[in-house]
UniProtKB/TrEMBL annotation:
PANTHER family: SERINE PROTEASE FAMILY S1C HTRA-RELATED, SERINE PROTEASE HTRA2, MITOCHONDRIAL
One GO BP annotation of this record: proteolysis
EC code(s) of this entry: 3.4.21.107
Descriptive protein name: Periplasmic pH-dependent serine endoprotease DegQ
SMART domains: PDZ
Entry GO MF terms: serine-type endopeptidase activity
Name of one Pfam family that matches: Trypsin_2
Entry keyword set: Hydrolase, Protease
Boundaries of every PDZ domain copy: 142-208
Family to which the UniProt record says this protein belongs: Belongs to the peptidase S1C family.
């Protein structure tokens, strides 16, 4: 591995995750500068961000843009599990940027650049990054377990719409509609029903399937979380012990 100072080190792979396209490598060195993790949950639409990478072998290239959207869905290499909570920006990202930092104006790491939406293979205005909240959890998993520990809620989901809200007699179009609750899964054991509407995960409001998935991605199997639901017009909070990813593939 060659650093910005042009010093090269022998790197050892600690772990690699195909779902997020993130790997952790280790070098034997000390006193190196590093980025602090920022709060990707606190990012606001329109906030300035900076993408750093090596597009087309142009080392240490910096581009700037704004946060265009959060919790964007993208296809995954893994058919059984996919990350559905990318940060979308208009900072120019091209082949060679993948794995580079996305930082806020404080210089904090808020994402890892990973993909672009393009028909040509080059930047056309849309780029995507894995949120720092998920990246940090993946890194910690590699350090502590040697692999990524993914938790699952054990449900299928559908975003709430005005039509669906009318059918269910719900006044506010918010939350995420529970489709199927899988037998033996975490949601099933916690008493969550197929007609419930998820409105929060550990106190964080959620209004789309990707937002639910992003929150669950921060936890590990056997972690206990609070899930806020709307059932027959009444709000409830249920305690859920998350299961491993083998529950839902």
């Amino acid at each position: 591995m060659t650093l910005e100072s042009n010093k090269s080190y022998k790197a050892r792979l600690i772990g690699a995750d195909e779902v997020t396209d993130i790997a952790l490598v280790k070098i034997e060195a000390s006193g190196l500068p590093y980025l602090e993790f920022g709060d990707s949950d606190a990012l606001r639409l329109g906030e300035w961000v900076i993408a750093i990478g090596n597009p087309y072998n142009l080392t240490n290239t910096i581009t700037a843009g704004i946060v265009s959207a959060k919790s964007r869905s993208m296809p995954s290499y893994d058919e059984g599990f996919k990350i559905e909570s990318f940060i979308q920006t208009d900072a120019a990202v091209n082949p060679g940027n993948s794995g580079g930092a996305l930082v806020n104006i404080k210089g904090e790491l808020v994402g890892i650049n990973t993909a672009i939406a393009s028909r040509t293979g080059s930047f056309t205005g849309y780029s995507f990054a894995v949120p720092a909240s998920i990246a940090r959890k993946i890194v910690n998993d590699f350090v502590n377990f040697g692999e990524v520990k993914r938790a699952m809620l054990g449900i299928t989901m559908q975003d709430m719409s005005s039509e669906l809200a009318r059918e269910m007699g719900i006044k506010d179009v918010k939350g995420v509609y529970r489709g199927e609750v899988l037998n033996g899964g975490a949601a099933y054991k916690a008493g969550i029903k197929a007609s419930d509407v998820i409105i929060s995960v550990n106190g964080k409001p959620v209004n789309s399937s990707p937002e639910v998935q992003e929150q669950i991605s921060k936890y590990r199997p056997k972690d206990r979380i609070k899930v806020g639901i709307l059932r027959k017009g009444k709000q409830k909070e249920l305690s859920v012990v998350l299961e491993g990813s083998n529950i839902v593939r």
